Amino acid sequence: MKLLLMPGMDGTGELFTPLLSHLHNDIEAVVFRYPFDPRMGYPELLTFVKQQLPEDEPYVVLGESFSGPLAIQLAATSPAGLCGVILCASFLTSPVRWVPRWAASRVSSWWFSHPFRTPLAIMFLANGAEADSRHWIRTVLDQVPADILAARLRAVLRVDVRPELQNVSVPIHYLQATQDRLVPASCLSIIQKLMPKVTFSQIAGPHLLLQTQPAEAARLICAKSLSWQGTPTNLQTHAD
């Protein structure tokens, strides 16, 4: 079974490293890495992702945080081979409910300039990471240009994929971080209200679950992915 990993706001895919070492041997991970192009919002990234989907084989998509709406948009198009979607600490609409959508235009690159990178990393981690992990995450964030992070935050503040969720026919599983300071529990409630059949698991940890709790996250991801294993009805090939 292939597992397509769609990264958080950094877009580098490098933050999946801890998770990869814990995945089951029957899972073949494919990590997406988004271009550093501030013009690429969710519509452009959807086109980018669709161009790289596996051909003639089943797969599961995991959307981490920023990429959750992208995973839903992809699933809504019913691509051949898709067996299910896993959302990790993600959302359908902006998780910052007190900020109106029009305020997205006020987001500036200087918010993500280097003096602010350390506080940003701490906010992502909450209180669940060791010093080595904090240093590594800051190093990854330092690779991402400030204008890219600002553009992706603007996209998050404007996004609303609730209509697309209605067109998703594959199963969805949600991984919820119990100490998440960025994505509140209400984000899962919104999903469940629109699609009651969505299943979920809770993991004790901060927003970056896949980085701070990789073993437990991998166990749940592998179990759910393998339970969905099989040839989808829209895949026109024979199973091995």
| Molecular shape | globular
Based on CA atoms alone, the radius of gyration comes out at 17 Å
CATH architecture, by name, is 3-Layer(aba) Sandwich
The percent range for strand residues is: 5-15%
Number of helices: 10
Q: CATH topology, what is it called? A: Rossmann fold
Could you characterize the architecture of this molecule?
Pfam families: Hydrolase_4. It comes from Planctopirus limnophila (strain ATCC 43296 / DSM 3776 / IFAM 1008 / Mu 290). Residues 45-185 form the Serine aminopeptidase S33 domain. This protein is of the alpha/beta class and 240 residues long. It contains 10 helices and 6 strands. The protein has a single domain, classed as Alpha/Beta hydrolase fold, catalytic domain (Rossmann fold, 3-Layer(aba) Sandwich). The chain has helices at 17-20, 42-50, 68-76, 117-125, 131-142, 146-158, 162-165, 186-194, 209-212, 214-227; strands at residues 2-6, 28-31, 59-64, 82-88, 172-177, 199-203. A 6-stranded parallel β-sheet has the order 2-1-3-4-5-6, with helices on both faces. Strand 1 (2-6), helix 1 and strand 2 form a beta-alpha-beta unit. Helix 2 (42-50) crosses helix 3 (68-76). The longest helix has 14 residues, at 214-227. The model is unreliable at 236-240 (pLDDT under 50).
